Amino acid sequence: MSIPSAVFKAHATGNDFVVYADPDGVYEPTADEVRFLCDRHFGIGGDGLIRLAHPDAVSDVTGAQIADCRANGADWFMDYRNADGSLAEMCGNGTRAITLFAQRQGIADGPGGLPFHLGTRAGVKVLAALGEVPPYGADVFRVEMGAWRMGRVNAYAVRIPGVIGEGRGTFVDMGNPHIVVPVKDGGATLPDVGELDLAVAPEVSPRLEHGQNVEFVRVDGVEGEVGRATMRVHERGCGETLSCGTGLCATGVVLRAKTGVDHWDITVRGGIVRVDVTDTDVRLTGSAVVVARIDLR
């Protein structure tokens, strides 16, 4: 196998990953290896695989991306693969998980050595370690997720095969594509968030050429300057996950557009995450956990 003999399991609010460090750039995984390791029955199990390598050791990274990493102080790159073996531009929860892993491996020098500059296919992300922060958990990180781009509000019709009803979705680009669907908004006729069956991929019309993540969200209230919401997500390449960092950011962007509220505590099946939105960028704050080291046979 073109992967090391020992890998690790990590998660960020239940969005789980097989992770490993590749400082010498010799362990780039094949799609078959990713699918095997992420298989929940025959492998380790995960929503994706993250290889931490130097930017010039990742075969699909361009010269311009390498130059961007160098210009922005990112010596390390998050080579992220979906569970189906496909490449992914970005994973917000993955940035937190791999940064905690980097700390534990001595690659990031612990809280005093952060912010940690991490290269991704969607640009360099900057992470700060905040320690324990209720109600988000222990080993909490704040990620500067960068710029967002939103399409026309409610421009997409979204259905779930086998589920009665339809919602209207809004496109948000967070380095990867999202359609955010409020379930209690306007003419939406979908069931409540907790009653949705996301075992199959939602159908989006008009169709996006390369697919998309789809977030279903319910606004639960606003207390002062902070909104509360509940979200579930179906991610392209892996199905429903307990959390999606870029999807949480996309959801915050759409909720801000609809309500004028900039700050959101969003509950997903894996925990609570804070999303702070401005006119130019998004911050994502949540916890990460390194679960175990696994020695492969």
TrEMBL record:
UniProt KW 4Fe-4S keyword: no
Main location: cytoplasm
Site (Could be important to modulate the pK values of the two catalytic cysteine residues) location in chain: 178, 235
Active site residues of this protein: 91, 91 (proton donor), 244 (proton acceptor)
The protein's Enzyme Commission number: 5.1.1.7
Listed InterPro entries: DAP_epimerase_AS (IPR018510), DAP_epimerase_DapF (IPR001653)
Pathway: Amino-acid biosynthesis; L-lysine biosynthesis via DAP pathway; DL-2,6-diaminopimelate from LL-2,6-diaminopimelate: step 1/1
PROSITE patterns in UniProt: DAP_EPIMERASE (PS01326)
Family: Belongs to the diaminopimelate epimerase family.
Role description: Catalyzes the stereoinversion of LL-2,6-diaminopimelate (L,L-DAP) to meso-diaminopimelate (meso-DAP), a precursor of L-lysine and an essential component of the bacterial peptidoglycan.
Subunit structure and binding partners: Homodimer.
UniProt cross-references to HAMAP family, sorted A to Z: DAP_epimerase
Full protein name: Diaminopimelate epimerase
Encoding gene (name): dapF
